Amino acid sequence: MNGADTAWIMVATALVLFMTLPGLALFYGGLVRARNVLSVFMHCYAIACLMSVLWFAVGYSIAFGDGNAYWGGLGKMFLDGVTVDSLTGTLPEILFFAFQMTFAIITPALIVGAYVERIHFGFVMVFSGLWMLLCYAPVVHWIWGGGFLADGGIFGDVGVKDFAGGIVVHETAGIAALVLAVMLGARKVSTKPPHSPPFVMLGAAMLWVGWYGFNGGSQLAADGGAAMAITVTHISAATASLTWALWERIKYGKASLVGIVTGTIAGLASITPASGFVGPVEAMIIGAIAGVLCQEAVNFIRNKVKIDDTLDVFAVHGVGGIFGTIMIAVFGEGTWVAQLGALAIVGVFTFVVSVVLVKITALITPFRVSEEMESNGLDLEEHGERAYEFHS
């Protein structure tokens, strides 16, 4: 065990949890109508709790167990055999478990943005739990757990390169979000502006800070590689924020706060898979393109194909993660066959599993709320609370 590595990953674990609670909750909560903000907070908070328990029970075993190239097995259920002396590299295995748990929390939480304002809470919980175990955890095993997409797998000695989750986190969450948005259908009223842009900015800022742990922690060591990952993460985020705002200004005459911070998230998502393989100049290029690319993806999905992916999960996270994964090959840090092949395999798998799980979950618990519930808002209808009581 290395004490410095252990101390850094403890900090990184806290930073990644901070991304969901409160970062993502505030970012998404500010973007919805005032009558739905508590439901978004509830989704993020409850998902964090449920994924923690499921990751402990079986998710970690599926992802990092000693099974085969496709499935980690159930040998590490409830951390069986993991003690304070167990090591993963230079880290206590229990810390590695906790660090990866925070990734298992935020990935299904990202999907929340696709279905806010019109979905039953029970469906969110059942679907998120099944999806994490049957979609996310197997993909983790394939890429990070020594599975068939990693080095020595079907792509030969050099497998897919995904440093911190362009495929594992962002592609899977983005595709699942698109599936849910299509199968759920559009909101009855989709033209209301975000109720609290300040919440959006504060949430994005917390995500930016937390992303230091997300990408820097994925080095699993306190060394120059972690420092470089943090640096390129910051450069990409800053550049994408500026290009998003500039492109908005060119197209619409004004640069918005919600726009510039969405550009931040686009830059962060895009650099995530490449953050362990590129330098600051490459990061600036990735961020510069991402700010325009993801904005155009938002416009295409929202206005051209008219899919109500409410908070643009696929356009920002999905497109960003896929773009960053491809840029690894562009800069010669991975093979084209492995990068594109893994994107295709995981994309098809995620699509199929997500569709099946939506149909199965809908048999267990109601899917979409009634038109009256949607009109009244999910805060009162689903949770019996209001975010703002102006007459008290």
TrEMBL record:
The chain crosses the membrane at residues 6-28, 40-63, 94-116, 123-144, 164-186, 198-214, 226-245, 257-277, 283-301, 313-331, 337-358. Keywords: Ammonia transport, Membrane, Transmembrane, Transmembrane helix, Transport. Residues 7-388 form the Ammonium transporter AmtB-like domain. Pfam families: Ammonium_transp. InterPro entries: Ammonium/urea_transptr (IPR029020), Ammonium_transpt (IPR001905), Ammonium_transpt_CS (IPR018047), NH4_transpt_AmtB-like_dom (IPR024041). Its main location: membrane. It is found in: Cell membrane; Membrane. The keyword Kinase does not apply. It is a multi-pass membrane protein. Belongs to the ammonia transporter channel (TC 1.A.11.2) family. This is Ammonium transporter. It comes from Parasedimentitalea maritima.
